[in-house]
Design goal:
Layout lengths: L6 E3 L2 H12 L4 E3 L6 E5 L3 H11 L8 E3 L10 E2 L2 H10 L4 E7 L13 E5 L4 H10 L3 E2 L14 H8 L5 E4 L10 E4 L6 E4 L5 H8 L3 E2 L24 E4 L4 H13 L4 E5 L1 H4 L7 E3 L4 H14 L5 E5 L6 H13 L2
Parallel strand pairs: 1-9, 2-9, 4-7, 6-10, 11-12, 13-16, 14-15, 14-16
Antiparallel strand pairs: 2-3, 3-8, 4-8, 5-6, 6-7, 10-11
Helix pairs in contact: 1-4, 9-10
């Protein structure tokens, strides 16, 4: 057990307790390789309602069902050759696939849609938890709705405190942004939410991949595509990649007003801002994905967050840019 009464290291004792909570329709936060999830029994309407209520999440924003590596998908969804090939290539890992549902889990998980989003996380602690409870676990990110997604157990605690009965502590998440969400109900897979598995990676396996158009009806099948998300609890201002000097001038204005601002930017920009409060986001998509949510949480130690946009140079950075822009509204 950690220093806080509801934070537990992952072992047989804590998993036994977690199993009790899940089977009594209570919520358990658990780590994945991307962010921490707020898990519940996906078969129970009552448990799923508790997730939406705890987060303050809009009830038309679907959840993802998490399964262990050896799970029988055919219990929950209709499989096809496309999804089988992608599962073999990328799972376990940060890829969520949207299938036609068999209607076994609570309809509240998919907000009444005829589809179901399923993911198999690669985090060893997540796999131990999922195998131990032996139930489909519906889980959004373990943060209050619209706040920055959590990548440590303490981030979860900061949002929920003792209101959450159990947080399984699996260390800091490596991936840092949520999974790619991919619709596999048609002949060509469609990315509904950008993440760590890119279109090029998918094309290399099945030959084709498309992106959903903003506002497309397909987006209703995916979490995290229609609402403001990832927002730190501090005033924020966003500047363009070509507006570094303006950002620095604004920083000075805030300083002169007895504020304590911080600038969030790439390594390349940070190296030219010596003497200022700066949070270095990194320079590649993978590094920025790993650092983004921790950086946004860190910004809450300051009076004002100044963001400087970056030039997207790889596909993972597209997913980071999506979250980065949503964080600034």
């Amino acid at each position: 057990m950690g220093d806080f009464v509801n934070i537990f290291k992952i072992d047989d004792n804590s998993l036994n307790i977690a199993n009790y909570y899940v089977r009594h329709n209570m919520l358990v936060a658990f780590p994945t390789e991307t962010v921490y999830g707020l898990g519940c029994n996906a078969l129970s309407d009552d448990a799923v309602k508790r997730v939406y209520a705890a987060k303050g999440r809009p009830i038309d924003n679907p959840l993802i069902v998490h399964l262990p590596m050896d799970a029988d998908y055919s219990r929950y969804v209709y499989d096809n050759d496309l999804s089988l090939s992608l599962r073999k290539a990328f799972l376990p890992g940060p890829l969520t696939m949207v299938y036609k549902s068999k209607g076994v889990v609570s309809p509240l998980v998919s907000c009444g849609l005829d589809t179901l989003a399923i993911r198999v996380p690669s985090h060893k602690g997540a796999q131990r938890f999922l195998k131990y409870v032996d139930l489909p676990i519906a889980a959004p990110s373990a943060n209050v709705s619209k706040h920055v997604s959590p990548v440590t157990a303490m981030h979860v605690y900061e949002d929920f405190g003792d209101k959450l009965p159990m947080i399984l502590d699996g260390g800091r998440c490596d991936g840092g942004i949520e999974s790619t969400v991919l619709d596999v109900t048609g002949d060509v897979p469609v990315i509904l939410r950008k993440g760590l598995i890119t279109a090029e990676m998918i094309k290399s396996v099945v030959g084709a991949c498309q992106y959903a158009v903003d506002g497309d009806a397909l987006n209703k099948r995916s979490p995290g595509t229609r609402y403001r998300h990832y927002c730190p609890k501090v005033p924020s201002t966003l500047f363009g990649a070509d507006e570094v000097q303006k950002a620095v001038e604004y920083y000075g204005e805030l300083k002169n007003s007895d504020k304590n601002p911080v600038i969030l930017c790439t390594t390349e920009v940070a190296e030219n801002l010596k003497g200022l409060n700066v949070i270095d986001l990194g320079n590649t998509g993978a590094v920025m994905a790993n650092r983004l949510y921790a950086a946004l949480r860190e910004s809450e130690n300051y009076d004002h967050l100044i963001g400087i946009r970056f030039v997207v140079e790889d596909e993972i950075a597209l997913g980071v840019e999506n979250r980065f822009l949503k964080a600034f509204g």
